[in-house]
From TrEMBL:
It is a multi-pass membrane protein. The keyword Signal does not apply. The gene is mscL_2. It holds the Pfam family MscL. This is Large conductance mechanosensitive channel protein MscL. It comes from Streptomyces luteireticuli.
Length: 147
């Protein structure tokens, strides 16, 4: 039982995913600190005065529960964009490069598809000669079926 579990955990793709997740979590903490310590104060200063941040007080003044904090949303959006850019450029691009050297294509553009005239499935590969769903023979690409 433990041998099977060990084989499962030690598979290359599981280890790759685990390392990627650990790196992503570490980057997330770093980027969160940046947005909390740098971006949030800049956004809050745009409001001016003694406000909690960039936004509007909907209820009694000074009540954080009724404060519509647009600044926190903007900060979260900036955090998301920075985090996704960091993950893409520090994890995805190098991983794609390493895999390409091994002869494996990852994160590639999707292949062109067409619609089956019989069952209207929209994800039939362009080069297919038969629909994978209804097994209808498909005309060669570039020819129009006769009505």
């Amino acid at each position: 039982m433990f041998k099977g579990f060990k084989n499962f955990v030690m598979r290359g793709d599981i280890v790759t995913v685990a390392v990627g997740l650990i790196i992503a979590l570490a980057l997330s903490t770093l980027i969160k600190a940046f947005t909390d310590s740098v971006i949030n104060p800049i956004i809050a200063s745009a409001q001016g005065g003694h406000a909690f941040g960039l936004g509007w007080q909907l209820g009694r003044t000074g009540n954080k529960a009724t404060y519509l904090d647009l600044g926190s949303f903007i900060s979260a959006a900036i955090y998301f964009l920075i985090f996704m850019a960091v993950v893409y450029f520090l994890i995805v691009v190098p991983y794609r490069h390493v895999q390409a050297r091994r002869g494996v294509t990852v994160f590639s553009e999707p292949l062109p598809v067409r619609t089956c005239p019989a069952c209207l499935s929209e994800d039939v590969p362009t080069a297919a000669t038969r629909c994978r769903y209804c097994c209808t023979d498909l005309p060669p690409v570039g020819t129009m079926p006769h009505h």
